Amino acid sequence: MWPRFFRLHKSPTQGNFPEKALRFLLERGFTYKAVETYLARKSNGQKSYQEVAASGILTELRQAYRRERPVIYTTAFVPTELVYGLGAVPFLPEVWSGFAASLGVAPRAIHISESLGYSQDLCSFHRCGLGLFGMGILPNPSAVIVSSHLCDGGRRSLYYHSRVAGCPLYVLDVPYSFDREARVFLARQIEHVAQDLVRKVPGLSLDHMRRAIEASNGARRVYLDVCRVRRNVPSPWRGSEALNYVSVFLSSWGSGWLPEFYGELLRYLERTVRTCAFPVGNERHRLLWLNLRPYYRTPIFDFLEKQFSTSIAFEEYSKLYWPEIDPDNWAEGLAEKMMSNFGWGPLERRIHAVWSMVEDYSIDGVVQFNQWGCRQSNGGARPLRDFLQKRGIPFLELDGDGVDAGNSGSAQAITRLSAFLEMLDSRGVIA
Amino acid sequence: MLLLTTCSYIPIEIPVALGIPARRAFPRGQKPVAESYVPRDFCPYSRAVFSLAKELEDTSEPGLVLAIAGSCDAMRRVYDAVRMYGNVPTLFVDVPRTGDDLAVGYFASVLRRFARELAAQSTGQATGEEELEERLWRAIRLLDDLRDVAKNYADMSSSSSQRLEMLFALERYLGMKDMEDAERAGTDGLVEYLVSEGFVPGEMKSLTEDGPPVILTGTYCLDTSMAEALDECGFKVAALDSCWGIRGLEPGEVQDGGDPFLALAGAYLRKTPCPRILQKDARILALDKLLDDNPGIRGIVYYLPKFCDQGYYDYVEVKTFAKRKHLPLLMVEGDYGAGKWAQTKTRLMAFLELLEQG
After folding, report:
1. A175 contact residues in B (CB cutoff 8 A)
2. CB B74 to CB A375 under 8 A?
């Protein structure tokens, strides 16, 4: 329904009625009530992992838009435990760019960001986030926290959000080295940010930190089981859907509903294995997907899963990379979480992480979605390809755009995927 | 041994103190060799640094070392590519994005490690801490004095391309002498050298004394072609806000006493910020100060190397600033040699007409 609603406008320049209407709805409690009632009726009272996620996200959206809790914008790799631990709602504009793409709102948002002066050569996840903010349909931030690692675009785009919203901006400068001195440097920054936020933003306190860290650790333990079950051949979860839930993985650690979400997901996966109701029948190939996916309607996943019986067995951004966090030493624990990100530091860390996923999930081929403008990921492609090819694992760089459909050609992507899968076939790699 | 550095945030004082000739690596453009190792949507500078690293493998000069700063995602990946596919010893300098006390303390430890690694590359053995600190203070004072001279000469020239060349001249001078020689020669030694290189006060004629004064800003100029184009088109470039311009001839005076690494870290992180530094308003305040220091500025030219994320985001901030100040702004996006392109000159001429009419 939402996509059609937005498509009322044939041109991005025609008025702003949908934004105002949407904002009006988002700020009303009955909107959330209505959606929750609809979901409850649909599920006959039995919660699935999808409903747990929908309910958790809707509750937080209601709290954010109705200003029941302060909203803190963060970049994708800031540990959200910090935000939940302060009693705020984390909001990741780049994650919502993915939602906007799936709802058909992204073209208008991108057009608006370009009218602000942002180049088409920037990553569209950030451009879209800037446009959504310009449209006035994102909740108002009380503060912005960015991290310096992995993504230049994230921190720079959120700088704009903080300037326009007139709220405090905090930069977590993540050191490149991994020694104790570096961890203490980052931990002190995290402590400073938390304490300063408590002083500056009404309604925040550190009283929630222990609960958030414990929730994160609890979710982590269940999630490790989820990963264990996902190693099953054939794959028990449709990869195209798993790629959608990367948004939850990026933005919900520390929330009260995440352990329940992964618990329900685990039950679903175990049931799938038990009943052999695998989403991709007669699985021929198992792929590892690096970076994000296109979030607008695209035929490439149907092509992979239905026509070519190929599973995306696991995704790079679903890999859990950090140890448990000590609630009594949470700042250092969160620092360690940030520094453990395998995308940060020398490229060998990412290569080893990819190889461990290849081994753990019985991968036949690796596809890196080369998101236009994502320098940190695309820049590692050549060494990654050389490393994998030496070990007999084919590697495909699939150029495209995760949010801006106008900057991506699905026919070309299918042609390239098709050639890649034929190559896997010819090598006799059939799971 | 010769150290080449990629960023104005890597203190040249450290190699000078260690007796290692050092200069900024100013690659002259990208070579086809970069195509297969560095993605096509990386900025020309990052691709050129990779090209340079590959070229250095073929030079006969022994003991070349490259120091790459973690300036952005692209440079971080270029560092990986140089390590994995190159044959030149490469060091990484982790430059923080903020300048608060915590960041300064951390950067001091990074610089200390950098000094140790450099010393090991140079002599194969560590220099004593006390001796290193004493030599570093001497290098800091020497560079303070020499940069003052270079800045004065830069101010005396109204030819913007010549001002860009000043940084080269200073680094060439340092490359020719060891620290003791340079200390003995003092500032007079540099003045003599500059004169011998054609930087004669009073003779550094401007092409454009009467042109409308503008600021040339952005992330990185790549080469002198944009500055030359501005000169040729008739602008008077009142301030060069680039790694080659004022940001390359800083920091100014380093606070004396105590730990020299800490003093150096503070001075570098708090110099005129480049767009990469992420301290709220710092960049815009620096531009505002440039306007105050150079009254009568009529416009801003923003030069942006293609695919430079820092520049793309910074441009929007500068655009907002220019609008607030009622200053016309021209953004030129390009590659090496962009100033020689007819398209660039056409745009500059149109901008000049706009300023002259206004």
Report:
1. 94, 106
2. yes
Name the minimum distance, in Å, from the CA of B349 to any CA of chain A: 22
CATH architecture of B2-196: 3-Layer(aba) Sandwich (3.40)
The 10s digit of each residue's pLDDT in A355-406 is 999 999 999 999 999 999 999 999 999 999 999 999 999 999 999 999 999 8
Contacts of B316 in chain A (CB under 8 A): 116-118, 160
Give the pLDDT confidence of B105-116 residue by residue, as tens digits: 999 999 999 999
Q: Do A382 and B81 count as a contact with CB atoms less than 8 A apart?
A: yes
The interface predicted TM-score (ipTM) is 0.93
- For CATH 3.40.50.11900, list the domain ranges present in chain B: 213-248+280-357
Whether the CB of A380 is below 8 Å from some CB of chain B: the reply is yes
Candidates A122, A160, A347; nearest CB to B80: A347
Q: Are B290 and B110 within 8 A, CB to CB? A: no
CA distance B90 to chain A (A): 13
Amino acid at A249: F
Tell me the C-alpha distance between A102 and A298, whole Å.
Answer: 10
Rounded to a whole number, what is the distance in Å from the CA of B203 to chain A's nearest CA? 42
Provide the shortest C-alpha distance from residue A357 to chain B (in Å): 21
| DSSP letter assigned to residue B172 | H
CATH 3.40.50.11890 residue ranges for chain B? 2-196
Choice among A55-64, A89-98, B58-67, B186-195 with the minimum mean pLDDT: B58-67
Chain A 355-374, residues with CB within 8 Å of chain B CB atoms: 370, 372-373
What CATH code would you report for B213-248+280-357?
A: 3.40.50.11900
What is the model's pLDDT at position B245? 80
Q: Please tell me the distance from the alpha carbon of residue B225 to that of residue B168, in angstroms, as a whole number.
A: 15
The pLDDT of residue A12? 46
Report phi then psi at B11, rounded to 5. -65, 125
Instruction: Give the pLDDT score at B159.
Output: 75
Nearest Cβ partner of B316 from A116, A176, A188? A116
